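Hi all, long-time lurker, first post. I run a small reading group and we've been trying to get comfortable going from sequence to structure in the token notation. Rather than ask abstract questions, I figured I'd post a concrete chain and ask someone more experienced to write out its structure so we can walk through it together at our next meeting. Sequence below, copied exactly:
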Amino acid sequence: MTWYKDWFNSENYLRVYSHRNQEEAERLVDLIAKILNLPANSSVLDMACGAGRHAITFAKMGYKVTAVDLSNLLISEAKKNAEQGGVELDFVLSDILEFETNKKFDLTVNLFTSIGYFDNDEENYAVIKKAYDLLKSGGHFVIDYFNKEFLLKNMIPMTVFSENGQKIIQNRSIDGTRIVKKIIIANNGSSEEFYESVRLYSFEEIINYIKKAGFTIVKQYGDYFGNNYESESSPRLIIFAMK
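-- Answer (accepted) --
Happy to help. Here is the structure in token form:
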């Protein structure tokens, strides 16, 4: 299943997620920089950067950022956002597993649940191994993923909102080990459908993958404010690991 290739290249994706919170992205980047005490000019790799919310924030803080995404649409949007923000960073159009560079980074990040898209666990694990391989010795990796237990208890089966005259319906369900979202965009009697499907990993599964890749776990948090991770009540699972 390659739902993400079509969906992330659709203008509708930007419409559905137009309300994504820049303040939230800045809060997470600030947390990462403070916890790691990242020196100025540190090199950062954003794995699956999307429209660049986090990558651009890192760049504004003075870090040397490489941002990779497989969506031509989102990379173009990110470049535009970076220009508007007055910062320069290196954007690369590539599937993260196919991304090759001779650089080694001080920090690699995979943020806002940008893992679990692949059908098989080996490919999903390969994203974490890639983060390890592209790090300098002593460098850090930060992954920001939804908290499975919290999501299962708080999932809203359907939401409906309007955007520029379009009606956007999002239906969410659990299908085995995955959370699936069916997105219907209705406009003047016609409609389009898109899908998202993300693997639901438990805390233990993510931790085991990170350790298997060779990392040492440093810290874990349950939200962008830096509160402790609690399996029942934390909306996010944010893990800091070191090579």
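A couple of things your group might point at:
Residues 22-36 form the longest helix (15 residues).
The two ends are 32 Å apart (CA to CA).
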